[in-house]
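Researcher: I need the complex structure. Ligand is G3I. Inputs:
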Amino acid sequence: MSDDITPAGRRPETRHGTRALLISAAAALLAAGAALTFAGSANAASTLGASAAERGRYFGTAVAANKLSDGAYTTILNREFNQVTPENEMKIDATEPQQNQFTFANADRIVNYAQQRGMKIKGHTLAWHSQQPGWMQRMEGTTLRQAMLNHVTQVVTYYRGKLDSWDVVNEAFADGNSGARRDSNLQRTGNDWIEAAFRAARAADPNVKLCYNDYNIDNWTAAKTQAVYRMVQDFKQRGVPIDCVGLQSHFTGGSSYPSNYRTTLSSFAALGVDVQITELDITNADPNQYRNAVADCMAVPRCTGITVWGIRDSDSWRSGERPLLFDGNGNKKQAYDAVLQALNDGVTPTTPPTTPPTGGPTTPPTTPPTQGPGGCSATVSVQSWTGGFVATVRVTAGSSGTNGWRVTMTLPSGATIVNTWNAQPSGTSGTVTFSNMSYNGRLGAGQSTEFGFQGNGVGTGMTPSCSAT
Ligand code: G3I
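Model: Output:
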């Protein structure tokens, strides 16, 4: 994607209550899903939203308030989608055009419309370097920090109980290979501005899910993806409230669908957050890319929904590229059929969507499995680039399951680990033992989990051995 884009959690006690509800809801869903799956392909769902719902997900679209009076537009919206994201109406310049004077009329039109039809709503977006009103653009420092927190508090409070999730912070990381934060007036208020925004949002509504949203975080090995991953990992470790990560997924000629997209989705999900495809559009609506992107989401239990960034090509922010599922006349395109097929082929998560993902790496294992003495095995797949690599290790329990596991691998000479997820490494070079985290040690017979690490140097020839504890 070009650089010119300017484009759940709760308090602990509430969280447990909600989890219980989620589990019973998931059980009901599973029962329903089983019945629906049994209904079979002869009765495959014929709309995007219905198919996604059968599999416990949503399929949504960005919506513009001024199009809700367009009958052709609303006919498709009502028929196909069960989630909406206001395209511009909840941005900072729209909701607080003058400091402390809030206007919600256009956003409310979308919220009311969606609520009346049982559609989920994602709020977009509370803190962003772009689309700031003039008064905010001119602010810096403590004054800006306070104004931003006030904005988050006021807007989240106003919509308390009405939304499914909020994009709390949007596009806070730089493009390119730096892995750094994007420079902005918000960033210059201090590196903790993102977590401050999330904490303010949680305080204002303990039940709405809080998401970080960004573009160009689709390719797992990209520096920007890794940097966002490390932030989410850090937030989870320190208890900063974050519930979901949105991959915008504006696929263009310059930044098209990556083959490791599923690894990205499952790796974020393994941190204990939901993942969502939040602004999907693809140059010329390539049906294969659409099919693959949707199939990847369906393969990851915690990929809870997909939103396309507009309905008809003529509604798109990049209409010249005809990147959407319906043409300007509202006719279904080939990409529509590909998406519906991928949804209908998708699986209902067989576990409640709070467990680690089963979606594995897209590359085949590069080593044969090794059987550990204590009843587990491990395989590793490596994606390399000049000077670095990412290793994804799949741990599979033997016939008696595990209470914990350790995987030992010898790194090639000169290779060093710079970042590990879902395991605790004993060192950064030479022979390294990776121990399970508190949340992924216990595996049932034959169950798998994944951990990974990023290294400098060359990552070839590593043979993992696994022991269960
Ligand atoms: O509504 C006014 C209209 O009255 C005026 O005549 C016209 C003249 O330019 O502008 C109209 O507003 C435009 C608005 O879209 C509605 O069409 C703004 O200029 C234009 O900047 C705005 O663009 C939006 C863009 O975000 C702004 O950054 C796009 O619609 C919207 O699709 C796009 O969405 C972003 C996501 O929020 C974040 N991720 C990237 C994505 C694509 O850039």
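Model: Summary of the prediction. The CA atoms of residues 85 and 345 lie 25 Å apart.
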